[in-house]
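ok new one. same drill as before - structure tokens go in, u give me an amino acid for every spot. 134 of them this time. try not to just spam alanines like last time pls lmao
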């Protein structure tokens, strides 16, 4: 019986080590900027798909990586990200106006809904700002 427990413990330890390998294999993309960062993130997603044996996702990501490498330029990517920030800022302004109108009507359920939508728009705006600096 002790030999069986020792074997099971060893097997569990080996499984634990192999389970952490994909996380360790992921490349740190933080120091990269522009298209290089984009490529790095896609490559990390490919590695994760491989680790999960998700061949369809892996194939799609490989196609996305090839297309990104063929067409990505830092200036175009920066322009797209700036446009996205402007769009998200516009959405925040729109949601602020909707909240103001809901408060004027005084219905709490409408106020809560408008507040929730505003918070979602602000989160998207903050994400777009973070992407702008990647």
């Amino acid at each position: 019986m002790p030999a069986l427990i020792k074997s099971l413990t060893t097997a569990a330890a080996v499984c634990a080590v192999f389970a952490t390998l994909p996380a360790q294999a992921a490349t740190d993309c933080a120091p990269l900027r522009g298209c290089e960062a984009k490529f790095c993130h896609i490559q990390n997603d490919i590695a994760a798909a491989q680790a999960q044996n998700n061949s369809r996702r892996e194939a799609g990501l490989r196609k996305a990586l090839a297309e990104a490498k063929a067409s990505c330029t830092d200036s175009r990517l920066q322009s797209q990200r700036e446009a996205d920030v402007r769009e998200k800022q516009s959405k925040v302004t729109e949601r602020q106006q909707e909240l103001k109108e809901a408060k004027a009507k005084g219905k709490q359920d409408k106020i809560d809904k408008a507040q929730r939508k505003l918070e979602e728009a602000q989160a998207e705006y903050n994400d777009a700002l973070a992407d702008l600096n990647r």
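Residues 22 and 102 are 48 Å apart (CA to CA). and btw The chain has a mean pLDDT of 85.
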